[in-house]
Each structure stands twice: as structure tokens, then as C-alpha cells.
Design goal:
- The protein has 196 residues and is an alpha/beta fold.
- The protein has seven helices and five strands; from the N terminus they run βαβααβαβααβα.
- α1 crosses α7 and α5 runs antiparallel to α6.
- The protein is globular and about 50 Å long.
- The chain starts with 5 loop residues before the first strand and ends with a helix.
């Protein structure tokens, strides 16, 4: 990790990017940030104790097919990319950063060609992603409509990961497969090994 000032951690939703980014940042003594904080695409379509699902988010997932959801999120990430690139450039020569988010699309990251940066993508099996989404959304307690929204979000997440893995593998970029029961320190170890 000598000389690396920015570590980027990409991946689909619910692969543990945020948690692992916090662990990696703590080990390296760097700040960490999510691309979600730069601009939010319609987020997770399930209630939490702190938040109801906004009507526009529910409508987004209820009315669009999986391919349309993918097109929408990829267009959002394309619009967001200049801000991400500026952030990476700023931290590559200044205070370091661990940056995580689904918006770290492999083709764009690979084209950065910046010194002092590394990137790794997290992947997880559909069963792992499903279990995490269902736990987060309290699927067993949800209404039929809420379950349908979670299922659509899962389908989008799985399809996004398929496309992302194709790009990562085509470009020969590093990725870490997060298995069920894998500890955060173990995933962080694997990320740091790949980033080196």
C-alpha cells in the first residue's frame, strides 16, 4: 500500500462496501466517503425505523422494469462521474481517502490513470445479497407491495453486478468475492491485498 492515497471500493448494493471502507480507512488512517453522498439516485425502497419510502422511490421501482432500472442508475452514475473524478484527483495528491460506492463503474475508474490510486470491487452471491436486502427491509414483516419493491431492487442489484463483473473481468481489475459469514476484517484484508 506504499504510496496509495486513494482506495476505491466498488460493487453492487449490499455487498458490504460501506462497512469495509470504514475498516480499511481506519487501518490506513484515512477518511472515507460514499459516492451516495454526492447525489442520491432513488435509494432503497423499504422502510426503516428512521425513514418511510418516499412516493417517488416507490413509483420508480414499481413502474420500471429491471433493464429500465439499470439504464436509469447507469445514467445517474454517468452524470455523477465528473464529481467523483474531481474528488479522486483532489485526494490522490492531498489527504488520502477511501471512497466507496456503486457509482465506481470499472471502465471509468480504469480510464482515470492516476498515480497513488487503487480500486477493488466487491461481489457477493445472489443468496447473500437477497438475505441482506430482506434483513434490512424486514421482509417477513413487510406488506406484499413492500416485498415486491424489495424484490425489484434485488433484481436490479443482481443485474447490475452481472454487468459490473463483466466489465471488471474484461479489464483485468481486482475483485473480492464476499462469502456469507466472511468477517469484515477478512474482507478488509482481501481488499488491501488486492489494492497492493
Amino acid at each position: 500500500m506504499r504510496g496509495v492515497r486513494v482506495v476505491m471500493i466498488g460493487g453492487t448494493s449490499n455487498t458490504g462496501k460501506s462497512t469495509v471502507a470504514g475498516e480499511v480507512a481506519g487501518r490506513l488512517g484515512l477518511g472515507h466517503r460514499s459516492t451516495d453522498l454526492l447525489a442520491r439516485h432513488p435509494g432503497r425502497p423499504w422502510r426503516t425505523p428512521e425513514r418511510e419510502v418516499p412516493p417517488h422511490v416507490a413509483e420508480h421501482y414499481a413502474t420500471l422494469g429491471v433493464d429500465e432500472l439499470i439504464d436509469s442508475v447507469l445514467a445517474h452514475y454517468e452524470r455523477l462521474w465528473p464529481r467523483i473524478e474531481d474528488l479522486v484527483r483532489e485526494h490522490a495528491t492531498g489527504p488520502g481517502l477511501v471512497l466507496e460506492g456503486s457509482a465506481l463503474w470499472p471502465d471509468r475508474v480504469a480510464a482515470l490513470d492516476l498515480p497513488h490510486t487503487a480500486a477493488v470491487w466487491l461481489t457477493a452471491g445472489e443468496d447473500v445479497v437477497r438475505a441482506r436486502i430482506r434483513a434490512g427491509g424486514r421482509y417477513d414483516e413487510a406488506s406484499a407491495r413492500e416485498r415486491a419493491l424489495m424484490d425489484k431492487f434485488l433484481a436490479r442489484s443482481v443485474r447490475y453486478q452481472e454487468l459490473m463483473v463483466e466489465a471488471v473481468d474484461r479489464l483485468g481489475l481486482p475483485r473480492v468475492d464476499v462469502e456469507d459469514g466472511m468477517s469484515v476484517p477478512d474482507v478488509a484484508d482481501a481488499v488491501l491485498a488486492q489494492a497492493s
